[in-house]
Design brief:
Blueprint (H helix, E strand, L loop, with lengths): L2 H16 L9 E6 L6 E7 L6 E9 L4 E6 L7 E9 L7 E10 L3 E4 L4 E2 L6
Parallel strand pairs: 1-7
Antiparallel strand pairs: 1-4, 2-3, 2-5, 5-6, 6-8
């Protein structure tokens, strides 16, 4: 194999690794997916981080939009998150949602939604 072929092979390997869903620092790449028509205000927690950390706080994800981010892997290389979401609006039209997702492999989609009544605030 000549020098040029070796260099091209090395460059191809670097590009393949760099485009992998597993990030170079060992983080797990996930995609938050709002597959509803409502814009949502979302908070996401990385439950593998010690202590657990907020990755996004009250960020708006528009209807049918996605947001890519990374979370901490556990010993087996999988992510674990919890999230809360609330539609943007007021009064009785406001809806809420929450969920916990474990065993997230790199490239996993986490669907966020708000399809329940919001709890009544304590006065």
């Amino acid at each position: 194999m000549d020098t040029r072929t070796c260099r091209l092979s090395a460059l191809a390997a670097v590009l393949l690794i760099a485009s992998s869903p597993v990030l170079a620092d060992g983080a797990v790449a996930i995609t938050l997916d709002n597959n509803t028509s409502d814009s949502l205000r979302v908070t996401l927690y990385d439950l593998n981080a010690l202590p657990a950390q907020r990755v996004i706080v009250r960020d708006v994800i528009n209807g049918f939009a996605t947001l890519r981010l990374s979370v901490t892997p556990d010993a087996s290389g999988l992510g674990h998150v919890s999230w809360t979401a609330r539609t943007i609006g007021s009064g009785s039209q406001r809806r809420c949602g929450q969920n916990d997702k474990a065993a997230l492999a790199s490239g996993a989609d986490v669907h966020v939604y708000a399809n329940q009544e919001c709890p009544t605030p304590i006065s």
